[in-house]
């Protein structure tokens, strides 16, 4: 029953998303929608590793940046279309995820978080300093072959849809239940015979894959990257955490809601408040963590449940 | 050959002097980590706010940075107490999916502090000019900048005073008791919530002190805090969690390795040295320097 309702909601959302760029045809608004799609993809990918499996990563900028640089370097050194980066980027991100996982999964909780933070920063510094290969702080500028925003919108929508679908399938399979059990109590999970490191890696690899995909897409869309943009600790690694916290950790739609709020609010406040837009976002995040610790989508379930309980109580009374 | 030795000596001394000031910041973080068991990712932002307080004192009222720090410290003590009491402490009772939500809140606080400062001071690079900031003292043939020496001496004095405070006074002993075993401390009549608040304030005040000492050496801008957050958590892990002396030595090690890295590897990779060391320590020496001493 609930599943059918969810399905219906998903179809309605999908239809709205498909029609939206036809209704809103100003390039600026379409640009905002595309940014929402990119952020929702990163958020959903982060959510798989950190929300469901509980391994809070502070280093997702490494995957985003490697994805973006894969696309950029293909064009810079091999004169290939950066669209090939959409294949190479995610694969490279998965490749670097293997050693990152091997190092960081030896650690738990806050130490895992700090190790990923350090690894992400190492990637930024290395890409900044390998000037011959990456152009260093000058960054990589490409000439985009497609300029129509609508095409980017639908490509981004497809990317988000695949990410959401794969995440949904993983979470609702045996792997998903194992991941949640690792988050809730790793020792208990181990004692029940779950190979925790293997399953953490099974969460990390798709997470890295889709973050890298978002990075490669970003390179194609924005057409300029430098290490301080795509490997940025605050604006990527930490922002994705806050975006997902805002929307709802360990929920299907939480990251998308968070991304939409983050980008749209940012743009609204940018015009009215100037540089204070990030400040307002920060205050909002603090309030959300303090009063709605599981984010908007996470608490929505609780609110719904309370409403349903009330309804059940009423009908029982009658 | 002679020149190479001078270069080496100068690198080592500058590294140690700089490391002493990093230590002071990291000790603040380690105190907070000891008592609250969380990594305070807003620590660098507190350093940054402290630097701005000293900066205002210096440019608007002509107060020397080394005196201005005694204004910045109480201000940050108060700010730290308020943040702990009204924000982080509230989360103890809140139930959430991710156990790290106190850490995530400190990230939110970091963002608010950084952007709040940016609102008032813009992203401009600022610096404090004092009559002695470009002076140097000579040690043999090695020249060493005066602010480094003064900063190091003050930082070491503070570390010593803090050590006396933690070992000799009732309040200090209560802080150590709370960090060793909160429940046992509560049974012995320690008001743990008050102690936690004071510790956070103290950590923030030490951050301000370290920041003020570094003010004559660094450019000041709202994002400078990230640099200090990264350095102080590296030092804290390196020194062993919650260990004051471990953090002091860890600070010297990081200062030294950065200075050597900058001279002998390259300026761009000097931060990589610290981060790689950090990961190696996390993996192979999880107790930090403290565990080596105890062994």
Structural class of chain A: mainly alpha
Question: How many strands of chain B?
Answer: 2
**What fraction of residues of chain B sit in β-strands?**
under 5%
- Mean pLDDT of chain B equals 85
Helix and strand element order of chain A = HHHHHHEHHHHEHHHHH
CATH second-level architecture of chain B: Orthogonal Bundle
Helix content of chain B: over 70%
CATH top level assignment of chain A: Mainly Alpha
Specify the number of helices of chain A. Answer: 15
In total, the number of domains of chain A comes to 1
**CATH topology of chain A, anyone?**
ABC transporter involved in vitamin B12 uptake, BtuC
How would you describe the overall organization of this protein?
- The complex is a heterodimer of chains A (318) and B (295).
- The two termini of chain A are 24 Å apart.
- Chain A has 15 helices and two strands.
- With 318 residues, chain A is mainly alpha-helical.
- Chain A has one domain: ABC transporter involved in vitamin B12 uptake, BtuC, CATH 1.10.3470.
- In chain A, strands 1-2 form a two-stranded antiparallel ribbon.
- Chain B is mainly α and 295 residues long.
- Chain B has one domain: ABC transporter involved in vitamin B12 uptake, BtuC.
- Chain B has a two-stranded antiparallel sheet with strand order 1-2.
- In chain B, β1 and β2 form a beta hairpin.
- The longest helix of chain B has 35 residues.
- Chain B starts with a helix and ends with a helix.
- The relative contact order of chain B is 0.21.
- Chains A and B meet through α5, α12 and α14 of A and α4, α9 and α11 of B.
